[in-house]
Design goal:
Length: 1028
């Protein structure tokens, strides 16, 4: 929580009520609102002017002051100073919720601007100005205070009085006025489940006062109301409260006396008496963390913590945390009894500052400590030194070999984790920051060694003077440290952690679950040089990115701590630096001096009404600073933006690398993507169900040249929930398929081979991690190998998969563990097998006449048949075999797998497996044969099968008759055909088979023509009418 240098104008006036700014404004980053103290209105009691002489008889000026609100309590008609009080108004104004600016919004704004923006902040500022929103009033509370806390007396000298003879006299006009006393800090508590809300006000470095502003007293409204004439000109809002509107008890803590709360009436100051109480009854004051005269509240060190019950969101318990220079005091508000009780004390060394992260409820207290003698090997610390990390001890001669100066003072950090459901507090081992303020380069191996300066107990004056000169540069300052919440974890950030020579950022991850810390240091040139560079820097968080705004350098640095703490050296781990010049003095820029940073991602313009800007990310601007070959995919996937925008940027960078034929970088990206994908079960489940629709594209049978990102994103199927990895479906849709189809369409075999190598590499990386490739990816691998003529690799792939299935099946039968999946466990396997048959039978392919291609096609069809039979799709397997012209294989499958009941008359065969389909397949095969003998053998084999498979289609049926024309026939021939025929009849009706009825014609030309004996015999066998 921070007090703004200039009061923020948060409400305006109107014609009936003139505007008057508040007396003070504070920005509270928990729960992200502004707390405003209303200015004291002018009244007839605001002051009393008196004419007094400089020299009076008693040596004092005449006149007295009167309290502006002299109200009598109860029935006492005699007024006293104890009965006077003031009513002040505190309000809280929240930042309105709005949809975060994304790239689409910024693009629309940029297109409408007369001149292009120089930075992303310009576009965001323009979008905010076009849709201004006022702060929303969240809390409005009247608080009764004694005059000592509500007002402060000011004296104004109006100057000399001009007499009638136009000469100056010694008489002056003095004006005694009362103005509002401004606390150091004012902070509202969260609203509890019983409706209570409290306000804490810090008036000095040792005193705070707590008042209840909402609660059960709101239900009690006495009829007698207060006098309202004194506040009739109040500029803000609301009327004076009635009697009983505020709780009749306040709690005051004065650490100059003792740390225990004292209860008093709202209109009175408490009477403090030094107490001998301790937390456990036997501890001394020092053990309790309280040192009279030394203990004081650190700036901003007053916090509210609301706790709930286990597995409940209601806030049932309220704690007040007071961070002092010697200890952290925890007070519990007993709302049932109306008591504020000190419950816990956490003592620490003399603290210089503290940092608090509200979301994770992490409190870190920093205390300076000086490094002691080289010989002793210990540091001068407090009671927690046994938990601190050991210091690096080096020899005297090693220090003399380097000219670099090192810090003689470091900051020791104590961590407290407060719970949301329990009063228990977790801690971490004490760690130090500021220990690596300088890094010296070794001349021997050109590597960097980390050295610490240790101040000895016996040093001469010149050595001490040297250390004092360097202390300004070496010692870490509180404003160089920040405590941030990134990806749900707490990080302690130290700017300039490697000294003024090398700059750098120190990142310390505070792992509450593991009870340990992780440390990383990264070099940044922006933090080199003198202290003014650090003083001009603000640290915030935008979309879980560490954002460092440097007004001195006019540069914004974005750092992804997830990549910094990753052990994978292949991902992008550096910071993204954006240079954004401030421009004109009148123009407001993110680095403008008129802007005041408000955590985590707001900027306040203190000019005029005080606009508030929320900074949004512009991925396009950020990615311009990242080298093209850097693996930025994990960084993009961690952003909280629409997935279409993220995938568009990934597709663009992939496309650029593919156009450059940078296979090395692409393989590096694929390894990272596959590694992350193997750890995400949700992504694998999504791919198995959603990749089936890509099979037509993966077959490359109908290629397209369309590689437009907007069109592809418009038809892409994306996960309905957030997945932090890139799925196989997305890789296919935005990378592999568009470029493969475009290359096939253009006939660029080199491009097709390049994409095939990329797809195969991705397939292999998934197999290495025991992750099954989705059917669309398998189909694409088969298609590109088939298109590029890599028949040996394709046949090896198919044989390896079949062998793997055999091993997996045997392990399953023996109840042995196996990580592989069978083909029938993968969704879309049947559709995949059908697509394989289409690829193998594609007549448009150039591989039709290649003998090796024909052999590979047969293996493809056999592979597809195995899959279909394993999935239980026997009818579909037969259909595919017949479509591929594999008549004999289809007959074998039917006889072994289906075996229909030939005695049943109502057998209904599946579409594509009927007798006519077998006959048509036989005809197609016969057309490819050159010998009539082979054709006859094929049809004879088919006739034998149909007699077993479906004999009803071969039997002659009188219901299925056909007229046969007999022009040119003799009477004897007509009587042979039909004895009942007469001489004047030109046609005769004869029965035929069901097969002949469905096909209508017989391929006579394949068997020597109609007059051929072979042809007549076969027509009779299949029930076709003999042609004359």
């Amino acid at each position: 929580m921070a007090s703004l240098k200039a009061p923020l104008t948060i409400v305006g006036g109107n014609s009936s009520r003139p505007f008057q700014p508040p007396a003070a404004t504070w920005f509270d980053d928990d729960p992200l609102h502004f707390v405003a103290l209303a200015a004291r209105p002018r009244s007839s009691y605001d002051g009393r002017s008196t004419n007094s002489s400089v020299n009076t008889d008693d040596g004092h000026s005449e006149g007295s002051t009167r309290s502006p609100f002299h109200l009598v309590r109860g029935g006492d008609n005699e007024a006293s100073n104890e009965d006077t009080y003031e009513i002040v108004l505190y309000q809280a104004f929240g930042i309105p919720k709005r949809n975060p600016l994304n790239n689409d919004v910024l693009a629309n704004v940029i297109s409408c601007m007369s001149r292009p923006p120089t930075s992303a902040f310009d576009a965001a500022k323009k979008a905010a100005q076009d849709n201004l929103q006022a702060l929303t009033l969240e809390i409005s509370a009247w608080v009764t205070l004694p005059p000592e806390l509500a007002t402060i007396e000011t004296t104004k000298m109006d100057g000399s009085i001009l007499t009638e003879d136009d000469e100056y006299t010694c008489t002056t006009e003095s004006s005694l006025a009362l103005s509002r006393r401004i606390p150091i800090l004012a902070k509202f508590s969260p609203k509890m489940e019983n409706g209570m809300r409290f306000l804490v006000m810090q008036y000095t470095t040792s005193m705070v006062r707590v008042a209840m502003v909402e609660g059960k007293s709101d239900e009690e409204k006495p009829e007698k109301s207060r006098q309202r004439s004194t506040l009739s000109s109040f500029p803000l809002m609301g009327e004076l409260p009635r009697e009983g509107d505020v709780k009749n008890v306040h709690w005051t803590i004065d650490l100059s006396v003792d740390p225990f709360p004292v209860t008093s009436k709202p209109e009175r100051m408490p009477i403090f008496k030094r107490s001998s109480r301790t937390l456990f009854g036997t501890a001394s004051k020092d053990e309790e963390g309280f040192v009279p005269g030394t203990t004081s509240i650190i700036g901003g060190g007053v916090l509210w913590l609301a706790r709930g019950k286990m597995q409940q969101e209601e806030k049932s318990f309220l704690d007040l945390i007071v961070v002092t220079t010697t200890s952290t005091l925890v007070y519990n508000m007993d709302m049932m009894r109306g008591q504020l009780v000190k419950t816990q004390v956490f003592a620490h060394d003399l603290a210089a500052s503290f940092w608090y992260e509200p979301q994770t409820r992490t409190l870190v207290i920093g205390s300076y400590k000086r490094v002691l003698s080289l010989n002793s090997g210990i540091t001068d610390g407090g009671p927690g030194d046994n938990e601190s990390q050991g210091s690096c001890i080096i020899q005297d001669q090693e220090i003399q070999q380097h000219e670099s100066s090192f810090p003689s003072v470091v900051m020791s950090m104590k961590t407290l984790f407060f719970s949301k459901v329990s009063p228990l507090v977790d801690t971490l081992p004490i760690f130090d920051v500021g220990t690596l303020r300088e890094v010296a380069a070794s001349e021997e191996d050109k590597q960097h060694e980390l050295l610490l300066t240790l101040e000895t107990l016996h040093v001469d004056q010149s050595e001490m003077a040297r250390q004092e000169r360097n202390s300004e540069r070496d010692v870490v300052l509180p404003n160089e440290i920040s405590l941030l919440n990134l990806y749900g974890s707490v990080y302690c950030v130290e700017l300039g952690s490697m000294g003024s020579v090398h700059g750098g950022i120190g990142l310390t991850k505070l792992d509450r679950e593991a009870g340990c810390i992780y440390v990383r240091h990264q070099k940044f040139d922006a933090f080199k040089g003198h202290r003014a560079v650090i003083d001009s820097i603000s640290v915030g968080v935008i979309d879980n990115l560490l954002c460092i705004f440097s007004k001195y350098e006019e540069t914004t640095i974005f750092l992804d701590v997830a990549a910094s703490f990753s052990d994978d050296q292949r991902v992008f781990r550096g910071g993204i630096e954006l240079f954004e010049p401030a421009g004109d003095v009148s123009d407001v820029n993110v680095h403008s001096k008129a802007l005041s940073f408000l955590p985590p991602s707001y900027f306040l313009d203190t000019n005029g009404q005080g606009h508030i800007y929320e900074v949004a990310l512009s991925l396009r601007s950020m990615l311009k600073s990242v080298p093209l070959n850097e693996c930025i995919v994990p960084f993009l996937l961690r952003r909280q933006m629409p997935r279409t925008i993220i995938l568009t940027h990934i597709m663009e960078r992939f496309s650029k690398l593919i156009s450059l034929k940078d296979l090395s970088s692409l393989r590096n990206w694929i390894v990272v993507i596959a590694e992350q994908y193997s750890e995400c079960e949700d992504a694998r489940n999504f791919d198995f169900e959603s990749s089936v629709h890509l099979l037509p594209k993966s077959s490359l049978l109908s290629p397209s040249e369309n590689v437009d990102a907007n069109d592809i994103m418009g038809h892409a199927i994306l996960p309905e929930f957030s997945i932090p990895v890139l799925t196989q479906t997305e890789i296919l849709e935005i990378v592999l398929l568009p470029h493969a189809m475009s290359a096939v369409k253009k006939g660029d075999q080199n491009e097709v081979k390049f994409i095939s190598s990329l797809a195969i590499f991705y397939f292999i990386e998934l197999e290495k991690r025991l992750v099954s490739a989705c059917v669309a990816l398998q189909c694409l691998v088969v298609a590109v190998l088939w298109r590029t003529g890599q028949y040996g690799e394709l046949k090896s792939l198919l044989s390896a998969q079949e062998t793997q299935w055999i091993i997996t099946r045997r392990k399953s039968q023996l109840n042995l563990p196996t990580a592989n999946q069978m083909y029938f466990d993968i969704p879309g396997s049947t559709a995949y097998a059908e697509t394989l048959v289409l690829i193998a039978t594609d007549e448009c392919s150039d591989n039709v006449l290649n003998p090796q291609a024909q052999s590979t096609a047969r293996q493809l069809i056999s592979h597809a048949t195995i899959i279909l039979l394993g999935c239980g799709a026997t009818s579909l397997a037969v259909k595919c075999l017949l479509a591929a012209g594999r008549l004999n294989d289809a007959i074998v499958v039917c006889l072994k797998k289906i075996k229909p009941n030939r005695s049943a008359e109502d057998i209904k065969l599946a579409e594509g497996t009927q007798s006519k389909d077998f006959f048509c397949a036989a005809v197609s095969n016969a057309r490819k044969m050159t010998s009539i003998s082979d054709r006859c053998k094929s049809f004879f084999h088919l006739h034998c099968f149909l007699q077993q498979w479906d004999p009803s289609v071969l039997a002659l049926d009188s219901r299925l008759q056909v007229k046969v024309f007999r022009h040119g026939e003799s009477d004897e021939q007509r009587r042979k055909i039909s004895p009942q025929a007469t001489e004047d009849i030109d046609t005769v009706v004869v029965p035929q088979s069901l097969l002949a009825h469905e096909l209508t014609c017989f391929p006579d030309e394949l068997f020597g023509g109609k007059a051929s004996a072979y042809c007549r015999k076969l027509r009779t066998m299949f029930g076709f009418v003999e042609s004359y």
